[in-house]
Design brief:
Helix content: 55-70%
Number of strands: 0
Distance between the termini: 21 Å
Largest sheet: none
Strand content: under 5%
Shape: globular
Order of helices and strands: HHHHHHHHHHHHHHH
Structural class: mainly alpha
Radius of gyration: 19 Å
């Protein structure tokens, strides 16, 4: 899997856990909650599972449900930033997902409670987690399993997700000038992930399956005006160019 192919040094110019205090200013953490977060930091799957075994099987109040959701998502965020395959897989199996970070102009209560630097770090670390090859791969597989039981759910393949994230990282590298290097590195990482997936294909038929990418049908900016079936495989190339995935575009050209 591409998640293994792309394991490498993850840290950029900003510390991985800079945002910890800013992420939960309104949450009162118990000793067990802190134990859980520390276990995630260390990558200790056994202790993380122990934390979940000790949790009540049914949460009684809405406040407990909200807190559990926030804590679980934050734990998954930390695990994804570290590309911890086992922890990400386990936390996904518990139903947690990483949410899209709020925009720079967001004025919700949570964002308003943070300073501008705290909010910027929170957003950056959110995208670090979303761009993790491990998270991109495992969240897709987890959603595929969910799709088998829920026909109304829609699963976006990891190449699509990598393309969308890459375009977003390119934009944020221009807007968030204080973290330009960080976002540029994430943009490159998304491109490398997509190319790594293509490199794992064993033949042109498998490459064609990825390059057709049914999940991008209907997007206004990805149109192939032709009845030629072979040309339809260029939909992914159009999408790659639109979202500035230069490595994927070159991959297609060289193959």
């Amino acid at each position: 899997m591409a998640a293994h192919a792309l394991r490498r040094e993850r840290r950029t110019s900003t510390s991985l856990f800079d945002v910890l205090d800013a992420a939960m200013p309104e949450m009162s953490l118990s000793e067990e909650d802190n134990f859980f977060l520390e276990a995630v930091r260390r990558g200790d799957l056994r202790q993380v599972k122990g934390y979940f075994r000790g949790k009540p099987s049914v949460l009684q109040t809405e406040a407990e449900i909200i807190k559990d959701s926030k804590l679980g998502r934050f734990g998954l965020n930390l695990a994804a930033q570290q590309d911890d395959y086992n922890l990400v897989k386990f936390l996904l199996s518990q139903g947690y997902r990483i949410e899209e970070p709020h925009s720079r102009s967001c004025a919700c209560d949570s964002c308003s409670a943070m300073g501008s630097l705290e909010k910027a770090l929170y957003r950056l670390n959110g995208y670090r987690a979303l761009a993790s090859p491990v998270y991109l791969s495992l969240s897709y597989l987890a959603d595929c399993e969910k799709e088998l039981t829920n026909k109304n759910s829609r699963t976006n393949d990891p190449v699509y997700q990598a393309f969308v994230l890459n375009g977003r990282m390119e934009r944020l590298a221009r807007e968030e000038y204080e973290f330009k290097k960080d976002y540029s590195n994430l943009s490159t990482r998304c491109e490398e992930y997509a190319v790594a997936l293509l490199n794992l294909c064993r033949n042109m038929k498998e490459i064609g399956c990825l390059m057709t990418m049914p999940s991008i049908k209907g997007l206004a900016h990805v149109q192939v005006r032709t009845a030629n079936k072979a040309a339809l495989k260029l939909t992914v190339l159009n999408f790659a160019i639109k979202n500035k995935n230069e490595r994927v575009s070159m991959y297609r050209y060289n193959h």
